Amino acid sequence: MDDKTDLVFHHSAPALNMVNEDIDRLMDEMVEGRTGSSACKDNCSGFLKGRAASGIRYYLSEQEGTGYHDFFRVSGSLTVSITDVTYKNDTWVTVGGCDFFKIRLLVSGGMRGNKKELLATAPEISLTVVPDNGLGGYFIAGGQNLRMVVLNCQRALLTQEIGLADDKIPPPMDNLFSGSTALRIFPMRLSAALMQAGRLLIDSRHRVHAAYRGAYLEAIALQILALVLNDCHSIAYQTADEIIANKDVHKILEVRDYIARHFHRSLQVAELARLVGLNKTKLKTLFRIVLHETVYGYLLRCRMERALELLDSDERGIAEVGYAVGYNYPANFTSAFRRHYGVSPRRYRVSGDIEPIRRSNPSS
After folding, report:
1. Is 327 a residue whose pLDDT tops 90?
2. 3-class SS at 133?
3. N or C end of the chain: smaller count of CB under 10 Å?
4. Which residue has the higher pLDDT, 131 or 141?
């Protein structure tokens, strides 16, 4: 869907090194026909005249590598970038400041600093504040497929569009606007739902019709924002009421991240408890308090969500899908899938429909 029916303007310059204000201005100019680029002349005529720009796409040149960067303006205070690239050589990306914060969801690949130190590796999510006069960046490693979603958010997104009062912005988001001029990064805890949302945004180019993609991107981007806000609020609530120690909250979230990465393995509570230095009983108790579900309930949800993705997008057989999400025996996978969704994997693949049933989380 990257021809003229796709409301994305193809741009010949590498927009990824522009700051948000430059990208916004470029979108406006391309719609109004003020630029001299051939892409605008080809794509900005007719029904696109006067419409808000859906986005800008920059394809890597043959010398650079393969893939593309997409930039979409969802609202006046939210821009979404989607990256799916493989550079031939290490490539520097500039992050310019304009008083906003980023929610960066890394699905595959990694990023390195100016001294080639490791900054992030997938799967990972982080909050980053970029002050108005700040300037930074990162290297994308050559030969490595980087798949990433970034929400570039202004403060008005929280205070005006969502309607949060300043004192209701949960930590660490409240620290993003403390007046410091330093670029700061706050690692967050990854959930299966956030990872799935990131994949949906990246795959939307091929799976969602161009006429509906703008609305689709907005819905998923706001879902990511809501999930991150909810996680921040949940952690703040637990620690503010001193239900559990802050260090134990982070241990529970570490277990959650570990499950999200390794749900295809045969995971045991004892193993997870040893991983973070807790006993089994305390891990199960705190996991339910912090995340509002059991250890095995979360493990099952990770497996079932990934199974749906594979059944939708993969040609492998039912038994292979089951094995990929942690089931050595097809009958066990089919039984778990049916209990979770109310339909067998085979029937779901044929019909594309699921019939969710209300169930309590499996006992831990």
Report:
1. yes
2. coil
3. N
4. 141
Q: Which long-range contacts (CB under 8 A, 24 or more apart) does 238-244 make?
A: 238/289, 238/290, 243/289, 244/286, 244/289, 244/290
pTM (2 d.p.): 0.58
Interior/surface letters 141-171, b for 16+ CB within 10 angstroms, e for the rest = beeebbbbbbbbbbbebbbebeebeeeebbe
Q: Name the percent of the chain in helix, strand, coil, to the closest 5.
A: 45, 20, 35
Reference 104, options 148, 145, 55; nearest CA is 148
Which pairing describes strands 9-10 and 55-59: parallel, antiparallel, or unpaired? Answer: parallel
Task: Specify the length of the chain in residues.
Answer: 364
What single DSSP character describes residue 256? Answer: H
Contacts with 136 (C-beta within 8 Å, 6 or more apart), sequence order = 94, 95, 130, 183
d(CA 354, CA 53): 36
Alpha-carbon distance of 127 to 110, in angstroms, equals 16
How much is the average pLDDT of 97-118? 80
Reduced to 3 states, what is the DSSP secondary structure of residue 151?
Answer: strand
Q: Which token pair is 360?
A: 């309590």
Strand ranges across the sheet with 135-140: 91-96, 135-140, 110-112, 118-121
Cα separation, 249 vs 178, in Å, equals: 24
Helix (H), strand (E) at residue 30: helix 20-32
pLDDT tens digits for range 272-288? 999 999 999 999 988 88
How many Å apart are CA 286 and CA 92, to the nearest integer? 42
The answer to whether 322 and 332 are in contact (CB under 8 A) is yes
DSSP 319-359: HHHHHHTT-SSHHHHHHHHHHHHSS-HHHHHHH--------
Asked if residue 110 lies in contact with residue 118, where contact means CB atoms within 8 angstroms, the answer is yes
